[in-house]
Design brief:
Its cofactor is heme. It holds the Pfam family Bac_globin. This is Group 1 truncated hemoglobin. Keywords: Heme, Iron, Metal-binding, Transport. Helices cover 61% and strands 0% of the residues. It contains six helices and no strands. It has a single domain, classed as Globins (Globin-like, Orthogonal Bundle), CATH 1.10.490. It is globular. Helix 2 crosses helix 5. The protein has 119 residues and is mainly α.
Length: 119
């Protein structure tokens, strides 16, 4: 049996680093950074990391809302969603994540599109 995606991404430490980089990349991306103007960056990083940890087979440490509840009323566009995926790929590349794991992460993220875009 192969290791979980959580393990292959470096466990809690590896995923936390990826999530921290992802949030930093989002904040620098003009296509989506306005969404985060009044955000608590440390809370964003913690939420992203714990969501990612739980979603990849690690311990269920996420205490936030589900994706639909989190994004309800935000009317996120398809272009913004694609910018998030591009940022995720950049964070994965920055952390030297292997191709198979990058594909798995992007597949999972893309599968959440109905709960994020135009709701």
């Amino acid at each position: 049996m192969s290791d979980s995606l959580y393990t292959r991404l470096g466990g809690t430490d590896g995923i936390t680093q990826i999530a921290n980089d992802l949030v930093d990349i989002h904040l620098a991306n003009p296509a989506i950074s306005p969404r985060f103007v009044n955000s608590d960056v440390s809370a964003l990083k913690k939420g992203a990391a714990t969501f990612f940890i739980a979603g990849t087979g690690g311990p269920n440490v996420y205490e936030g809302k589900d994706m639909a509840a989190t994004h309800k009323g935000m009317n996120i566009s398809g272009n913004e969603f694609l910018a998030v995926l591009d940022d995720a790929l950049e964070a994965l590349n920055k952390n030297n994540v292997a191709q198979r794991e990058k594909e798995e992460v992007l597949f999972v993220l893309y599968s959440m599109k109905p709960d994020i875009v135009h709701i």
